[in-house]
Amino acid sequence: MYYEVNAAIVVLMSAPTAPRPATESSASPAAPPEATATTAASATTPAHRPALDWRLRFAALSLIWGFSFLLIKVGTDAYAPFQVTFGRLLSGTAVLAVVMAAKRERLPRSARTWGHLAVAAFFLNALPFSLFAYAELSIPSTLAGICNATSPLWGMALSLVALSEDRPTRRRVAGLGLGFLGVLTVLGAWQGFSGLDFSGTAMALLASLSYPVGWIHVRRTLAGSDASTLALTGSQLFLGTLQLALVTPLFTAFPGSFPLLPTLAVVALGALGTGLAVLLQYGLVTEVGPTTAQMVTYFIPVIATAAGVAVLGEELSWNTPVGALVVLAGAALTQSRRRGRRAAPRP
C-alpha cells in the first residue's frame, strides 16, 4: 500500500511522483505500495468540497496503509497466503463495485484495455500481495513494511532503463545509492546478515519491485484510455481477484474454519487497505494534487514499524529504524526534480 504504497491503483498510483496511469502519463513510477490502482487529478469545485478536511483523510490513509502489514500478519495466522490475498482482493473489489454502481461508471470496452489491465493486475495486485503474505510467514511485519518502502528505488532504477523521458541526474543516482545503503543497514549487512530470513526478505523485496514493473506497463499501455480512473481501478482489482480465484484452489485446501480475528483482518485489509484507501487517495490527488498526496508513502513504514512493535510485540533493533530513515531519504531524492532555469531576460 499504494499501493499499497501504496496505491493506482489500482494502484493508486500516485506516489512519490508516482504514476497516474490512465490519465497522467508524465508521472514517474514510485508509489505507495499498498496502493494498487490508477489515479488522475482533476479540479475540485468548491461546491463539491468534501466535508472531511483533507488532512484528516491523509492521516486516515497513512494509518490504513501502515496497518496493512499488521493485518497481513494476523490473517496468515489462520489462512494460507493465497487465501489472504484472495480475500483481500475480493473485499476491495466489492467496495469499488458498490461505488462504481452508485456512480454508474462504465467498464472499459476495449479488449486491448482489458488485456493490459490483466497484466497490471498481476504485477500491481496478485503478485506483490501474495509475496508479502508469504514473506510474513517468516519475517516480521515491520521488516515487510520497510521493504515495501524500497519501491521508489526500484522504480527509479527501472525507469532509467525502460522510460526514455527519465534521465539520470546526480541527485537521483545519489538517492538510489543512499536508499540501497539504507536497505543494507536494515538487513544488518555488517553482521553478515545474521539471523536474517533470506527467503522471506527476498519475497518482500521482490514484491516491492513488482509495483514499478506494473506502473511502467500501465504508463506505456493505458495512457490516453477513454475509461475513467475509477473504472480502470475497479476493473483491475476484479481481474486480480479472478487471477487469485483460479490459483488459490490449486495450492490450498478450503479452510476448515473461519476464526473471527484473522477473518476480520483479511476483510479489513481488502475493504479498507485496498478499497477505501483507493478512494481516499483518489480524492486527495483530486483536491490537493499528486505531489502532496504522494507524501503518504513516507509515513507507511513508520506506522508499520510502530504497529508491529506495539501490537504484535515484534523486536526492533537500532539498525531497523535508522536504516528505514536512510531508505526514505534515498527514495525522496530519487523522486526529486531539478527546478527549471529561469529564462534569461531579453535585451
Provide structural commentary.
There is one protein chain. The chain has 347 residues and is mostly helical. The protein has helices spanning 54-75, 81-103, 111-135, 141-148, 151-162, 170-187, 198-221, 229-251, 260-288, 290-293, 300-312, 319-334. α4 packs parallel to α7 (198-221) and α5 (151-162) packs across α6 (170-187). The longest helix is centred in the C-terminal third of the chain and has 29 residues, at 260-288. The chain starts with 53 loop residues before the first helix and ends in a 13-residue tail after the last helix.
Strands, total number = 0
Principal-axes shape call: globular
Protein structure class: mainly alpha
CA-atom Rg in angstroms:
19 Å
The major sheet is characterized as: none
Number of helices: 12
Helix content: 55-70%
What separation lies between the terminal Cα atoms? 52 Å
**Mean residue pLDDT:** 80
Estimate what percentage of residues fall within beta strands: under 5%
Low-confidence stretches: 1-47, 340-347
Q: What is the string of helix and strand elements?
A: HHHHHHHHHHHH
